[in-house]
Amino acid sequence: QVQLVESGGGLVQAGGSLRLSCVVSGGIFSISNMNWYRQTPGKQREFVAVITSGGSTNYVDSLKGRFTISRDNAKNTVYLQMNSLKPEDTGLYYCKAVGNQGFQRYEYWGQGTQVTVSS
């Protein structure tokens, strides 16, 4: 059974840093493109960053330079390093695994981890 479990959220002052982790079980991690999304108050869930199974990365333009996505295939874990945090980064952060097994596309979400940035 596939499961994604995020951790690392919390309360931090503006200008601080957090590193989020998402551990993936179920044997799909190495073949998955791993994404981070967030839902900030009053807004729809938005894409933050992706790292492909091959290690290529892409970010939403507004967060380039402050957030870094990485993965450790040996630990079945994807990370999101967030620096210079701002109050507007407050929200629920989710990881998502996307890929194909044979001809079947899959998409799995974690339950989210809360990030709160105080001013």
Descriptive key words:
119 residues; mainly beta; seven-stranded mixed sheet
Profile the largest sheet. Answer: 7 strands, mixed
The helix-strand sequence is EEEEEEEEEEE
Strand content: over 45%
The total of helices stands at: 0
Query: Given the C-alpha coordinates, what overall shape results?
Result: elongated
Average predicted local confidence, pLDDT? 97
Rg value = 14 Å
- Which percent range fits the helix content? under 10%
How far is it from the N-terminal to the C-terminal residue, by CA?
A: 40 Å
Give the beta-strand count: 11
Can you tell me the residue ranges where pLDDT is under 50 for at least 5 consecutive residues?
none
Kindly name the structural category.
mainly beta
